[in-house]
Amino acid sequence: MKKQTKKKDDQNVSVSDHLNKALVEQLKAVKKDLAIEQEEKAVELEKKKREERKQREKNKSFEELLNESSLSWKEFK
Questions:
Q1: Which of 19, 39, 42, 64 shows a CA-CA span of 20 to 30 A to 53?
Q2: pTM reported for the whole predicted model
């Protein structure tokens, strides 16, 4: 019976149980820092894309603006 109980206990043991508690906390902190860094990069990328769209819109020619317009000169005849 003792062998069966020991096997059950071994199955429920996780990696964090074998590691030092300080090391586990350090790894969790690193994971949190990486998540924050990834989120900041995503925000910066979105900001950069928005700025590029704004710059392209600003540099459009009259022909491009006219083609994108939904107005029709026939309606104003």
A1: 39
A2: 0.52
